[in-house]
Structure formats: structure tokens, C-alpha cells
Amino acid sequence: MGFNFIYFYDSVRSGIEYLPNTFELTFIPILVGLCLGILIAVIRVYRIPFFAPLLAVLITLYQGIPLVVALMIYHLLFMAAFNNFAAVLHLSISMADINTIWIGIFALSLHATCYMEESIKGAFFSVDQGQYEAGYSVGLTRLQTLRRIIIPQVIPVALPMLTNNIVGTIKGSSIVMVIGITEVLAGSVIPASKTYAFFEGYIAAALIYWIFTILVEKFAMRIEKRGDKYRRNLV
Amino acid sequence: MVDLFDWDRFFTNIPQIVAYLPVTFKIVFYATLFGVILALLVAVIRIKKIPILHQVAGIYVSFMRGTPMLVQLLVVFYGIPIVMQQLFNINVNRWDKIIFVYITYILNQGAFLSEIFRCSILAIPTGQLEAAYSVGLTQFQAFRRIILPQAVRVAVPSFGSDFIGLFQNTSLAFLIGVVDIMGRAKTIGTATKHVLEAYVFIAIFFIIISLLVKGAFYLLDKKLAYGR
């Protein structure tokens, strides 16, 4: 009993070894979330018939599902149905060929999309309606107004919220441990399977996540400061 | 393949899972009740900048915000027995696992809510406080009658989304072996080899909860829109 620094050091090293997996589980969902989030937000802001209400309902419902539950369901469906699915499509791949990390990336991407869409939509609504009208009145097309007038004003508003979403995705990536993917959290306790130093292992994981999120927040703050330069005449 | 999802199993599962709903509600109840108390304490410490405590509170909030809930849960679950043994020589191996869940969720909510409270109190312009002092209110009166009613209004939307997040986070408790709805789903899975129906029901339950909480906070927000 007690805190053993040698075991702790081993755990930190083992956890850092699996950082690439956590990066993969964070960056791909963030990228997917940003692209789909912007697309869906624009659809909802412009109230495109049929798609806008449909996506609104889907996103509201999907946000209600906890990540663990979604992961469990996708994992089960994958295990039960993938081989049949591949057979139907005449694909010569089987379940064993696919890394389960993709299930985690899939689930995290959907969650990131939902949350980022909400942030981006909120930022769009913060831009005054008059800005659109002013854009049209000087003869800009819809796309030009969006690109030159609206989006430059959306970005600084959306950035702090997106930073929160990114930190949320980093933290969410620890949950994929439950379907057997080894990332920082699971990696940190690998040495503990021999030494039973689970406490040191989890503290090591906490430390790695903590540093990671602080770095992301610091970086985001620098970008936000740069954006503030162009907003000096506001406020 | 055909046997993947079956409505009969779905409906027989429902009462078995619903029986464990109180566990989830208890976690949310304790985490909110004690979380709010802890959060108020931390928020006051950070706003008044009480030396030493201020720095400790800052590190505590940063840690809770910067690490995943699951990691916090596991650190508490493995750490508290060691700390109690070393410092107080108390053996906590007999403690119910749910106690560790309560401790984690209270600590987590304390940090998140303290940030919400702190930001909403700081969002009130200083002029409001000065105006209150100028008409002769004491510091406490000014806080209770002028600052608090306005701060609550600012805090309600963030509190609502935090509350939904808390409900969703309770689904992690089964990972340290607590039998809540997720834990029950897992045991149903081990017993019957069919667990998809149980997870689908849990997903529906969480969706309904999030819609209800969103609706309730929307109404509350509307009700608090006085003076606008």
C-alpha cells in the first residue's frame, strides 16, 4: 500500500506509448464533427425544407444518448452483424480484419458532430440578421455573403465553445476502454496487471489527460486572442 | 442474425431494468445536492480570493475539468481505500461501491457547478453592487437581494446542460461494478446472451430524461425572465 513512484513512472511511460491511439480517437472525430457540424448548422440556419427539421429532431434525440450506451450498442451490432453485412456486399473482409478502434472513432464522431453542430449553430445565430441583409444589398450572392461576411464573424464566437467540445471529445475518448480499445487510460494500467499498482496507473492516466487538455486550452486561447485583434471596434 | 433484436425480450427486460432506476436517481440527487453546496463554497473562495484556499480550489477545478469522468471515478475507487488506510487506518474494503460513485460525482459536480456559479456572479456588472451599497444595503443584503436573483438567471441554462450531462455520466458507474441500469443490462446479457434490447431501452430512457430536463429548464428559464 502507499504510493510507489517507480510504478507510477512505469505507468506514465506505458500511457504515453498509447497516446497516438488517443490522438486518433480525438482528431478524426473532431475533423468529422467540424465538417458535418458546419454542414448541418448551415442547413438549419438557412431552414432548408425537410432536412432542417429532420436533422434538428435527430440531433436532439441523439444528444440524449450517453456515449457508453452508444458505444455498447455499436459494438454489439458490429459483432453480431458485420460478417453478414460484408457477405451481402460481397466484401472479402471479415470482422477480424477491422480494428475495433474504428467503432470508437465512429461513436465519438457522431457525438462530436452533435455537440459541435449546436455550438456552430449558436454562433451563427449570434450574427445579426442585418449583416445578411447588408451583404445582399451590396449585391453579394448568398454564398459570397456567407463566406465573406457571416463566417468571419461566426468563427470568433464559435471558438470558445468548440474548444469545450474538443476537450469533451478528448475526455470522451477514455470511455472507449469499455469495448477493449487500448488508449491512454487502458495503457496506463497495463503495468498494473503485474504489480497491482492500479492507483498509480490511474493517477498516471489522469496526469496525461490533464496535461493534454491544458495544452489544448492554452493553444485555443492563443488563437482566440489573435481573433480578438480584428474585433477591436466591437464592444 | 434474425435473433438480434426481439420485441418480446425488449418488453420483458423493461421491468427488470426499471427496478434499478432508483440507483441512477440517487446518484443524481446526491451529486446535485452536495455538489451545489461544495460548488458554492468553492465559488466563494475563488471570488473572494482567499489566500492558499484560492490556489487549492483553482487546482481542484482545473483537475476536475481537465480529466475524464471515468478516470476520476477509477482514481477515487482505487485511491480512497489507500488514503484511508494510510491516514486513518480505516479499512474501507467493506464499503458499498456506490459510495465511491457518490464521492466522485459530488467532487465532479462541485467543480463544474462552481465554475457556472462563479461566472454567473461575475457576469453581473459591478455597478449593481455599487448601487446596492449606495442605497445602504449591507454586503449580505446586496448579495441576496441584488446579485443573487440576477446571477441565478444567468446560471440556469448552463446548469440545465450540466444536469443533463450528470444524468448521462451516471451510465459510467457500472464500470466499477455498481449495479445500476447499465449494470443490470450487463447481468441480463450474461444470463440470456441477449443484451441489445436492454441497451436500446436504456438509450430510450436517457433520451426521454434529457428531453424532460431540457423542457423543465426551458420553462424555468422562461419563468425567470423577469425584468427583461
From TrEMBL, chain A:
Biological process (GO), any one: amino acid transport
Transmembrane segments: 27-46, 53-77, 89-110, 170-190, 196-216
Listed GO CC annotations: plasma membrane
One Pfam family linked to the record: BPD_transp_1
Subcellular location as annotated: Cell membrane; Membrane
Bilayer topology annotation: Multi-pass membrane protein
UniProt keyword list: Amino-acid transport, Membrane, Transmembrane, Transmembrane helix, Transport
Residue stretches making up the ABC transmembrane type-1 domain: 19-220
CDD domains: TM_PBP2
Recorded superkingdom: Bacteria
Main location: membrane
Family, similarity comment: Belongs to the binding-protein-dependent transport system permease family.
PANTHER family reported for this sequence: L-CYSTINE TRANSPORT SYSTEM PERMEASE PROTEIN TCYL, MEMBRANE COMPONENT OF AMINO ACID ABC TRANSPORTER
Protein name stated in the entry: L-cystine transport system permease protein
UniProtKB/TrEMBL annotation, chain B:
An annotated GO BP: amino acid transport
Record key words, sorted: Amino-acid transport, Cell membrane, Membrane, Transmembrane, Transmembrane helix, Transport
Family annotation (Pfam families): BPD_transp_1
GO molecular function, one term: transmembrane transporter activity
Domain ABC transmembrane type-1: 21-217
Record localization: Cell membrane
A cellular component annotation (GO) from this entry: ATP-binding cassette (ABC) transporter complex
Transmembrane spans: 27-47, 68-88, 163-183, 195-220
Domain of life: Bacteria
Iron-sulfur is among the record's keywords: no
Membrane topology category: Multi-pass membrane protein
Family listed: Belongs to the binding-protein-dependent transport system permease family.
PANTHER family given in the database record: L-CYSTINE TRANSPORT SYSTEM PERMEASE PROTEIN TCYL, MEMBRANE COMPONENT OF AMINO ACID ABC TRANSPORTER
Protein name according to UniProt: L-cystine transport system permease protein
Lineage: Bacteria, Bacillati, Bacillota, Negativicutes, Selenomonadales
